[in-house]
Amino acid sequence: MKLTLIASLLGAVMAIPAAAQEITEFNIGVLGGENAQDRMTSNECMRAYAEEELGVPVKLFTPADYDGVIQGLLGGTLDMAWLGASGYAKAYLTDPEAVEPVLVKTNLDGSSTYFSIGFARADSGITSMEDMEGKVLGFGDPNSTSGYLIPAVEMPKAGFSVEPGQYFSDVKFTGGHEQTIVAVNNGDIDGGVTWADGQGDWEDGYNSGALRKAVDSGIVDMNDLVEIWRSKPIPEGPVVLRKALPQDVKDKMTALVAGLLEKDQECAYGVAAGETAGFAPVGHDAYETIIEVRKAQEAAGS
């Protein structure tokens, strides 16, 4: 009788899914770029799908800055996030075993690159970076690829030093993409940089990116702004998962995000910050160049 009972209990335990045994919750970090409530709203559908798929409580976390998400992943309090390439580079350089890139957002043409876009108010008389001499430039977050790393590398090569007081009268960090857009739109700074896929129409804020989200939110009318600079193409940042997660959890979440467009187009639009052709597989090697750039910047004390 005892043996039968033990066998029955063992069978019941083995029937419990591995994910239910090994994780009791799943936490998703959402990078800055827009205010916390909008980030929660845009990603709520994915949270709900993840909770249904994993069978454990799933929570969204929207730290005030990029580093909050990065540190959450490094410390194990966050399990998943869509990082920028520079953010992934920081995580990798800090601990190569912390996270793994699994997917990358694709544009409508199938590409997986985007741009750092320099912009100013249309009524400012500023139409190019040459017109920004002696003006105030706004960056977003020190851990942003398009909002800092890439323009901080490319602008000086073109003769636009980003050291305050050299070419620009001042260089300020606004705190994020939405903050930069608002600051330029309000005239608090003369120009700023943000991210966009560079496809579609300027009037729409392009097809995806921070400008598109700002238009959707009613924060700006793109006719009030003008593009004054554009970077070289930047590799889109990866969706990453904490390496220590059970493999079945990683497989389920990768499949969920990869199939999000087919499952729920409106949800994919919110998660991807605009129009997308979906999420495609990606690996570490796609970010080796960005990692080297970040390593060089850190070595230089930037």
UniProtKB/TrEMBL annotation:
<dbReference type="GO" id="GO:0043190">
    <property type="term" value="C:ATP-binding cassette (ABC) transporter complex"/>
</dbReference>
<dbReference type="InterPro" id="IPR005770">
    <property type="entry name" value="PhnD"/>
</dbReference>
<dbReference type="Pfam" id="PF12974">
    <property type="entry name" value="Phosphonate-bd"/>
</dbReference>
<keyword id="KW-0732">Signal</keyword>
<dbReference type="GO" id="GO:0055085">
    <property type="term" value="P:transmembrane transport"/>
</dbReference>
<feature type="signal peptide">
    <location>
        <begin position="1"/>
        <end position="20"/>
    </location>
</feature>
<dbReference type="GO" id="GO:0015716">
    <property type="term" value="P:organic phosphonate transport"/>
</dbReference>
<protein>
    <submittedName>
        <fullName>Phosphonate transport system substrate-binding protein</fullName>
    </submittedName>
</protein>
<comment type="similarity">
    <text>Belongs to the phosphate/phosphite/phosphonate binding protein family.</text>
</comment>
<dbReference type="InterPro" id="IPR017797">
    <property type="entry name" value="Phosphnate-bd"/>
</dbReference>
